[in-house]
Amino acid sequence: MDIKKQNIKYIVFLIAGMILIVASMLCEMNQFWTGLGFAFLTISIIRLFKIKKYQTDPEYAKQINISNHDERKAFVSDKAMVLTLKLVIYTFLVVGLLLYILGQVQYGEFCMYGICVIMILYLISYYIVNRKY
To answer: How far is CA 15 from CA 8, 28, 38, 46, in A?
Structure first.
């Protein structure tokens, strides 16, 4: 784990969160930007505390290092990603077909185009991974 890069990344997110909160309040932007700013701020603070614990607690650092290199965990994660991708594609398909049947052709096409984009991204990533391994 590269601690310095992690710290820099989360400090940047922390600052971005503060900027979003202040900008959304000063410029009277909608609540989405305030929520996004608070999300960046909260996640950054939590992650910075975890990094600090990783640096100061050797037992916690050992546990994290073991967890990061666990082959079973990586296998389960890969299987979960594949299942999620399939569920998203099937959901888009069912919703798209229902929208076509209900006369909402434009939204149905959007769902079908979403499936096409997902499949194109899958093919691109497949060729990249296949070449790498």
So the answer is: 11, 19, 11, 14
User: Residue 47: which of 13, 2, 77, 18 has the closest Cα?
Assistant: 13
| Cα distances (angstroms) measured from residue 62 to each of 41, 50, 54 | 27, 13, 9
Question: Which among 43, 11, 47, 32 has a CA at the least distance from the CA of 23?
Answer: 32
> In the predicted model, is pLDDT for residue 97 greater than 70?
yes
Three-class DSSP category at 2 = coil
Could you tell me the residue ranges of all domains in the chain?
A: 3-68, 71-132
Q: Kindly report the number of other CB atoms within 10 A of residue 20's CB atom.
A: 21
Q: What is the DSSP letter of 103?
A: T
What confidence score (pLDDT) does residue 83 get?
95
The predicted structure's pLDDT at residue 1: 55
- Residue 92 near residue 111 (C-beta atoms within 8 A): yes
**pLDDT tens per residue across span 29-67:** 888 889 999 999 999 999 999 999 999 988 988 888 888
CB 112 within 8 A of CB 92: yes
CA distance 23 to 30: 11
